[in-house]
Each structure stands twice: as C-alpha cells, then as structure tokens.
Amino acid sequence: RKSVTGHTLTALYNRHEKITMLTCYDASFASLMDQCGVEILLIGDSLGMVCQGKDSTLPVSIEEVAYHTECVARGNKTAMIVSDMPFGTYATPESAYDNAAELIKAGAHMVKIEGGRWLEETVRFLTERAIPVCGHLGLTPQSVHQFGGYRVQGKTSEAAKRIIEDAEILQNAGASLFVLEAIPSTLGKEVTEALSVPTIGIGAGPDCSGQVLVLHDMLNVYPGRKARFVRNFMEGQPSIEEAIKAYIRAVKDGSFPAPEHCF
Length: 263
Ligand code: KIV
Ligand code: NA
Known about the structure:
Layout: H1 6-14, E1 19-23, H2 27-36, E2 40-43, H3 47-50, H4 62-75, E3 80-84, H5 93-106, E4 110-114, H6 120-128, E5 133-138, H7 144-147, H8 157-173, E6 177-181, H9 185-194, E7 199-202, E8 210-213, H10 215-218, H11 240-252
The protein binds 3-methyl-2-oxobutanoic acid and sodium ion.
GO biological process, one term: pantothenate biosynthetic process
Protein name: 3-methyl-2-oxobutanoate hydroxymethyltransferase
Keywords: Cytoplasm, Magnesium, Metal-binding, Pantothenate biosynthesis, Transferase
C-alpha cells in the first residue's frame, strides 16, 4: 500500500471506513502491523506500564518515547506513526514544541497530547509550525491524580458538553485527529458528529471514526487489570499475525467494539 498520510485518513473518514490504530513499541511489531494493514501505529506512553512495568504513565520521559519511536520507525514502511507527548513535556507552547520536535526527528508523523481547552494555544503553536497534533479527551491517564483514579469521564450532561466544546476548540486550533477514551458511547457519537476530523475511540463506543487498543491488552499478555473496553484478539487465533488481522476485520466490519466493551 501507499504511505498512510493525513490525506489517507481524510479519505477513509469521508467514505466512512473505520480507521485502525494499535499501540506499538518496537521494530518487529511495527513491521508486522504495517504488513497486516494497521493504518496508525501509536507509540503510547502506555509503554511505561506495558514495557517498563510501572504503575502509571506519569514517569515516562521524552527520551523514552523518542527511543521507542525510532525503533518503530525502523520497522515500519507505510503506516502513520503517532507518538505520545509524556506528562510534563507540554506545559507551555514553547516546551511542547521543543519536545514534539524530538519525537518528529525520531520518526513520528504526528504527536498526541492529553487535555482540553487549556491546550488551545499549544495546539495552534505546534500546528502552525508544521507539527500535526492528535488530541486526547475523556479519560486522559496523565490526569489520574486529578480524576482520583481511572474513571469513565463525561457522564453528566455538563461534563459531556465540556468535552464536546474542548474537541471543537482544539479542532479549530488545528488538531487533525482525536483519541476519545472511556466515555459513554452516546458522547463518543456526539463528539464524532460535532467534528470534521476523525475520532479514534478506546472505550468510546462504536460510532467513532476508528478504534485503538493497547497491543499488550489485545494480545492478552498484560498482567494487570483489564479495562472493560479491551477484547482479547488472541482468543481462537493461531498466531499474533492472525490476531492483528482479526482486530482489523472486527474494527472495519463494526463488530468491535460490542456493547460489552462500551459505557
Ligand atoms: O498510551 C496509550 O497507549 C494511549 C492509547 C490508550 C490511546 O494513549
Ligand atoms: Na497515552
């Protein structure tokens, strides 16, 4: 296939074809996922939990995400690479730019940042300087201490309204993609309908423009607690390659997420 770019995502979005994203941290998995046809490889700060065994994403550094981004970029040929900006690396537009530039130099095509309207200026600052930005709304794990745990977000009508407004503000500031995590399916649908760029859901219902899962969750190798939105795609599959293909099929045909994965 040709390289997956922003234009590719727009084309998929316009023809209502679901977009597939998986987290990826090394060259071998990047090569496999790319060959299977996953559109977006996410170097998530989840690497702190699934690769490093830490109990949150908060200690992950920009150097660590850059290192894993380089590993993924070496194994990848055509997928789009999105890298997470870790906690504490985008508190101001200027520091965000310096840190995002490190990830772009490491091979990322886009960076992802967690949060709402407080990031308006930062999103504008990055996108005006040629760094594509993916927003991340809902359950943003870097805010775990402020949330008081990993809890479903946007459950009241006020909280839901705020998330929709945040998405619109960041889209207007230049964000070209959004991850929506652990929100009611009805809100996932509303945010997706309010925007003119794709949304990628993880526990955000079946009406998002695409879906993402953490690799170690969908292969059932993460030893920790499993979130409701996770499905074990290894089940019934003879190989990791077949599990990844089963994930792509299930996202594309709309059978994942099913009601039991949703809020
Ligand atoms: O870090 C990560 O893996 C993520 C996804 C869960 C969206 O941000
Ligand atoms: Na993340």
